[in-house]
Amino acid sequence: MVRSKLVIAAASISVFALGLSACGSSQTEAPASPAATTPSVPGIPANLVGMQVEGVEVEAWPSAPFGALRLWDNGTAWSQIELAKGEFKWDNLDGALANAESKGMTDVLMVLGTTPEWAVKKGDVKKGQDHYPQPGAASAPANLTDWDDWVTAVVTRYKGRISSYEIWNEANLKNFYDGTPEELAEMTARAYTIIKAGDPEALVVSASPALRLSARFDVFYPKYLAALAKADWPVDVLSLHAYPSGEGNPQIRGGLIETFKSAVAEAGAPADIPIWDTELNYGLAGPGDIPKTDITGPAAAGWVVRTYIDNLRFGIERAYWYIWTQKPYPLLGIQAYPGSDGEQGFFAVDNWVVGSQFEGCTDTAGAVTCNFTRDGQKSIVAWAETGDAAYTAPAGAQLVCDPLANCQEIAEGAAITLTEVPVRIYAQA
Questions:
Q1: DSSP structural state of residue 379
Q2: Looking only at Cα atoms, what is the longest distance across the chain?
Q3: Cβ pair 114, 78 in contact under 8 A
Q4: How far does Cα 150 stand from its chain's mean position?
C-alpha cells in the first residue's frame, strides 16, 4: 500500500501529515466548483480530464469536475442499439446526450463497436460466448456494408452533438474484438470517410489497445498501425488504455505510455497526431494471478492528480477515468463515487491544474516537480516517483496543500520529505 506521509522540517520542528496540524496555521484549500466544465481561461483546458459515468443515460451526473465524457458501458454500443438490421433502439444514447447537454457538456466521445448478433459471421455467436457485452459481439461484421450503414445512421442522427467517435474498445483483447487488425483498419478507414462526409467537425479516434497485456499488444497493435499507415492514417486521434497491472502505479503507467508511443513512432504516424488515454484506473486484478489492490485515502486522490499531470509530462492530450459511480464498484482499485477520496482527486486537479499555464516538470533524484502559473500565482506540484525523496521549499514558498485540501503555512528553505502522494506548494511570484 502507498504511504501518504508528508514530512516538513523547519528548524527543529517536524510535521507528520497529512493532518498538517503544526508549524504554522492549518488551513483548508478551497475546493474547485463542481461544475461540468471550468470557465474558459487561457491555459490547460478542462477536457484534459475525461470521465465515464455510470448511469449517464438515466440522468446520473458526477459532482466531480471534468471536461469530456466517454460513452461506454451505458448501453450505447452498436450491438445494444441496432437490435435488428435497420431497427434502432436509440433510448440510451438519446438519454445520455440529453443529460450531457443539460449540464453544458458538449465534448462527447462515443465508441462505435460492438457487432450485433444479426451482423456477425456465421457461427461467431456460438464461438464467442465470452465476448463483451454479449456473445458474438467481438466479431467483425460479416458484411462491412452493415458497418457503413450503422456509422451513417449515427452520424446522420447526431451531427453536431457527438464530438468524437472511437472505432473500437480494447481491440487487441479477444473478448472485445476477435477479427484481424487489417479488418479493423478497413473499418476505421470506412468510418472516417463516412464521419467526415456527414459531420466534418467530428473527430475520428482509433481503436484502443490495452497495454497491460503486453503479448496481446505486441501481436495485434503494430499490425493495426501498419494497416492504418497504408490507408494514409484515417484518424484524427490515436487512443490507448494504459491500465497498469493490479500492483502497478502511475510510474508504471508512464512506462506503458512510452511503449505505446514507441510503437506509434515505429509505424511512422504523423508526429503531431494527438494521443488520448480513453480508459484508465489502477489496482484492477491481473494480468494472471496478480490480485486487485485497493488504493484509498490520500493515495487515491494523489494518484488521480499524478495521472493528469503525467498526461502533460508524457504528451497525452486527455484521459478518461473509468468510472464515476454512485456507489463502490468492486472491480476498481480507486473509487470515484460521491464523497470518496478518489473523487476528491478530481477537485484537486481542477483546482491545481485546469486553467493554469503548464511550465514543465523536472525529475531530480526521484523528486518530480511540476510548475504552474494561474492569474499571476505560481505553484509547484511535487512528489516522489517511488518511495521518499528529499525536497527543499523554493524561494517565496508560502503554503503547502495535500490533494485532500489540507493546507499548512511553510517557509522558504524548509526541508520536505516527499512521498508518492503529490503536494502543491504556493509561492510568491
A1: E
A2: 76
A3: yes
A4: 27
Decide: helix, strand or coil at residue 201: coil
Among 309, 300, 297, CA closest to 257? 309
Tell me which residue of 146, 149, 137, 210 sits closest to 177, measured CA to CA.
137
Which of 24-28, 268-272, 336-340, 356-360 shows the lowest mean pLDDT across its residues? 24-28
Single out the residue of 218, 216, 139, 209 nearest to residue 179, CA to CA: 139
H helix or E strand, kind and range, residue 28: strand 26-28
**In angstroms, rounded to a whole number, what is the distance separating the alpha carbons of residues 390 and 381?**
14
Q: Which domains does the chain have, with CATH numbers?
A: 6-30+360-427 (2.60.40), 46-353 (3.20.20.80)
Do residues 47 and 318 touch, judged by C-beta distance below 8 A?
yes
Model pLDDT for residues 27-42, shown as the tens digit of each residue: 556 444 334 444 444 6
CA distance 308 to 380: 15
Please tell me whether the overall predicted TM-score, pTM, comes out greater than 0.90 for this model: yes
Euclidean distance between CA atoms 93 and 100, whole angstroms: 11
**Peptide bond preceding 244 in cis form (omega within 30 of 0):** no
C-alpha to C-alpha distance for 23 and 44, rounded to whole angstroms:
33
**What's the DSSP call for residue 305?**
H
